[in-house]
Amino acid sequence: MFEKILVANRGEIAVRIIRACKELNIRTVAVYSEADANSMHVQLADEAICIGRPPSNESYLRIDRIISAAEVADVDAIHPGYGFLSENAHFADVCESCNIRFIGPNSRAMNALADKAVSRALAKKAGVPVPPGSDGVVENEQDALVNAKRIGYPVMIKAVAGGGGRGMRSAHNDISLVKGFHTARTEAEKAFGNPGVYIEKYIEDPHHIEFQILGDYKGHVIHLGERDCSVQRRNQKVVEETPSPLIDNRFKKLREKMGKDARKIGEMAHYVGAGTVEFIVDNQGNYYFLEVNKRIQVEHPITEEVTGIDLVRYQILIAAGEPLRHSQGDIKFEGHAIECRINAEDPFDDFRPSPGRIEMYFQPGGHGVRVDTHAYAGYTIPSHYDSMIGKLVTFGKDRREAMDKMSSALAEYMITGVKTTISFQQAILQDPNFRRGVYSTNFVDQLLSGARRELIEDKS
Predict the structure, then answer these.
(1) What does pTM read for this prediction?
(2) Is 295 a catalytic residue?
(3) Which CATH architecture has domain 207-455?
(4) Which of 7, 208, 284, 404 is the most buried (most CB within 10 A)?
(5) CA distance 211 to 227
(6) Which one of 295, 341, 370, 399 is the catalytic residue?
(7) What digits encode the pLDDT tens for the residues 79-100?
């Protein structure tokens, strides 16, 4: 087992990793930017090293500085968390060349799933359904128009690198396609340093379903069930739950089929560690592969709640060379879990980020309530990074109980000094369609199309 791990991240996921390390009696090293000197992960780690100025490209994205910190601290391994360098194959290679274990898939698996276009080709080879689309990257607007005509409008233009909704545009005709093609390329270049985009058929009113997988160095891959991530705003996930109400209520047979396909993709890629295979499902029960997230997911806690399996701990054990301790038949699912992302944003002002000092902070608790956060009273939220304050998770014996606990927990959550999305999350939990489990990726847009001040009763 490792003796010391460097956490190459910040915020709540860094805190989460440090906690898992402490339970395994592993010492931890935090790296931080000047803006994060007072962050919780810095205070909880056994050691902390400043790696640069606040902008990510001068700190958390600097491979040379992170490796230097790892060598100075003499660590055995690096955990990248999510975002930043977590899916960077070059970073994984550099770690291995420096005799530091990268806690995640190796560069071979990352390259097999290098971007969405490459992943799509692997899925087709595995016999997993994919949406009709271009064969690889589309280089110019003329090729874009040819592909769109062949596929048929509407289409989606998607960045091959990254995620989070960046570099994505829909198009319903030639004019919007040309405009969206150039906009998506520019956005992708700025966000990921890669302007490459591809085109695929736009699935009307889709559902976003993802499967959690785990793989070890012996080639074994299992899945830990699905998560429904269809409640999104601008392609950013807002609420996640497991099991999926769509599958439970309408398409129960899909669970086994999609789970098998998720494992098949993991096996073909020789996947090691934790990852997520993402699908979209239409209203007729057809499903299509989207991509593989080659890291721990923001929404991993809900899977932990219904399976009883600590995914971050498992990541560390696998990276240390241990085989999977579970076969697929060992995985049992009990109850229902929901996660709400609490962001420092103003829902009354087009969700504008609200950095600043938290004056008062009181988080909910009780049986079946979990909060993963790095926030505390007196903490200043920097303007340089993601605006997420924390993740509120509730668990119940069934979906109704999990929803009722979430509504109660949101009402109890108190944060002052910055604007938050708590009231927005309350509106979602009170919506009749959400309560019935009848929603798609268009749900939030439909919710916000009404009178916002009627839907969101109280400012956070």
Answers:
(1) 0.91
(2) yes
(3) 2-Layer Sandwich (3.30)
(4) 7
(5) 6
(6) 295
(7) 999 999 999 999 999 999 999 9
